[in-house]
Design brief:
Blueprint: E1 8-10, E2 13-15, E3 19-21, H1 37-48, E4 53-55, E5 59-60, H2 80-92, E6 97-102, E7 120-121, E8 135-136, H3 139-158, E9 163-168, H4 173-178, H5 193-196, H6 198-211, E10 217-222, H7 233-246, E11 250-254, H8 281-288, E12 295-298, H9 304-312, E13 318-321, H10 323-327, H11 331-336, H12 364-374
Parallel strand pairs: 3-4, 3-13, 4-6, 5-6, 6-9, 7-8, 9-10, 10-11, 11-12, 12-13
Antiparallel strand pairs: 1-2
Helix pairs in contact: 1-2, 3-6
Length: about 375
């Protein structure tokens, strides 16, 4: 049976344990996406905590792909130097680092565009979260986006990152192409799930063509959009099989988006008991039973007994956490050193407030405790 504290590998990527920091917008770059000193310090702290693999918050691959303020970008060759600083900081602290690559598509934020650009999407339908209606991408614009993913992956490799993760979840660009709710195209990139997979398949092919067959390429994939007409588990499992055939190295199974119905969002609140944890583990298990490549589960994981059960029941090969590492970047080291109490995170989602101020995400509970001590 797998255990958390054992060495494993994903393709050529050797990991000290089975923990992964799931990609999380962190609000640590400047307003054009360039790496800041704050970003370097942020990722260094994560690496010092003993996490097996750190995946960055999504790096937008084109200027019209930015979705949230102070995101990190990966759209220009002059960004490579800053990205190298991130990789060096993580490696100097003993960690491993992968870059998550994405385009916001219809969920990009035109108010944040720092140069003239159009809002793109697979079809001209109002976005369920923002209400904005994108321009339907032409085949030439699809080609430009595919090239942008490949160029970003090449930059990532040159910058010294240990791998890349393609973002195919949470209502962003690739997920929009996969979803029947947002992709109503009548050409080869639309129709049934076979056609809707084409954009992602061509992105993966282009990325692989840039980085070579041995460089680790992962994906974060929606297993269920939890929305009317959205990607269903059966379709997502088809996508997983195609991805495996086309050369993906691992799949992180997520689900939902900020516009999903009935609070079926990726970052659910009030995960206070073990029975609330691992809320996507059973979905991940379906993927584990479908593909032979490593499967990563994410979603409200807070305690070692839950992690042990995930591994014992064959639900996943790796566990990914996000919010717990915001409050406790050192959580994995704490567990490894014998303090096995569950993560202190109370899943309030207050950590994102300071990110919007451009000073990086931070735990709201810890901030309040600090303010109280300083009074």
């Amino acid at each position: 049976m797998p255990c958390l504290f054992e060495r494993t590998s994903i393709k050529t990527l050797e990991l000290e344990n089975r923990s992964i920091r799931s990609a999380t917008w962190s609000g640590v770059s400047d307003n054009r996406g360039y790496v800041s000193d704050r970003a370097v310090d942020f990722y260094r702290r994560l690496a010092e905590g003993g996490i097996g693999l750190i995946i960055t918050g999504f790096q937008f691959v084109m200027p019209n792909g930015i979705a949230i303020a102070f995101q990190t970008g990966n759209y220009s060759d002059d960004m490579t130097k800053g990205l190298s600083r991130l990789a060096d900081a993580v490696h100097e602290s003993g960690g491993k680092l992968a870059a998550q690559l994405a385009h916001g598509g219809a969920r990009a934020n035109p108010d944040l565009f720092f140069e003239e650009g159009e809002l793109w999407g697979p079809s001209p339908l109002p976005d369920a979260l923002t209400g904005n209606t994108p321009k339907e991408m032409t085949k030439e614009e699809i080609r430009q986006a595919i090239f942008a993913y490949a160029a970003a992956a090449s930059r990532t490799q040159k910058a010294g990152f240990d791998g890349v993760q393609i973002h195919g979840a949470h209502g962003y660009g690739i997920n929009q192409f996969l979803s029947g709710a947002t992709n109503r195209r009548s050409d080869a990139y639309g129709g049934d799930i076979t056609g809707r997979y084409r954009f992602l398949g061509e992105v993966l092919e282009a990325v692989r063509g840039e980085v070579g067959k041995d460089y680790p390429v992962l994906i974060k994939l929606s297993g269920n959009d939890y929305s009317e007409g959205g990607l269903r588990p059966e379709e997502a499992l088809y996508v997983a099989r195609r991805l495996e055939e086309d050369g993906i190295d691992a799949i992180e199974v997520s689900a939902g988006s900020r516009s999903s119905a009935n609070d079926m969002v990726p970052s659910r609140m009030n995960i206070l008991r073990e029975e609330n944890e691992g809320y996507l583990a059973e979905l991940s298990q379906r993927f584990k039973e479908t593909v032979k490549i490593p499967v990563i589960t994410v979603g409200g994981i807070r305690s070692l007994p839950v992690i042990s059960k995930i591994f014992a029941d064959g639900m996943a090969d790796y566990v990914a956490l996000s919010r717990p590492f915001i409050r406790e970047p050192h959580l994995i080291n704490r567990w490894r050193d014998g303090d096995t109490e569950k993560a202190k995170c109370v899943s309030c989602n207050g950590c994102y407030d300071t990110g919007l101020e451009g000073i990086g995400i931070s735990c709201k509970v810890e901030r309040k405790q600090k303010e109280k001590r300083e009074r």
